[in-house]
Design a protein that fits this description.
The chain is of the alpha+beta class. It has a single domain, classed as Alpha-Beta Plaits. Helix content is 42%, strand content 20%. It contains six helices and four strands, in the order αβααββααβα. A four-stranded antiparallel sheet has the order 2-3-1-4. It is elongated.
Length: 103
């Protein structure tokens, strides 16, 4: 049974934010780099630019933070923010609260 469960586990998910300069030409060049890479993750990035928040936003599955950061083009990696994301269940949170005497 454990073997079956091991195969059904999802890979960790990461939120990757890649900020860039708000100058129109610089912004357009960054978007162009992402769109012309051929990478599924990069060509499908969301952008906050139209709302004045100049960053690419990507959600991707990866083995770890380093692998997730590796999705980002080299020129932008040092500024990228990579955060492992996930969901909680009510049961998980209630157990945590009970374990800490808060429920």
């Amino acid at each position: 049974m454990r073997e079956i469960l091991a195969h059904t586990r999802r890979m960790p998910r990461f939120l990757i934010e890649v900020p860039h300069d708000s100058d129109t030409v610089t912004c357009a060049k960054v978007v162009h780099v992402f769109l012309t890479t051929g990478s599924h993750f990069l060509t499908n990035a969301d952008w906050g630019c139209r709302d004045g928040d100049h960053r690419a936003i990507i959600i991707a599955e990866a083995e770890n933070h380093d692998e997730a950061r590796g999705i980002v083009p080299v020129a932008f990696r040092k500024d990228a923010k990579v955060v492992r994301i996930g969901k909680f269940t009510t049961l998980q949170i209630e157990k945590t609260l009970r374990d800490h005497g808060a429920l």
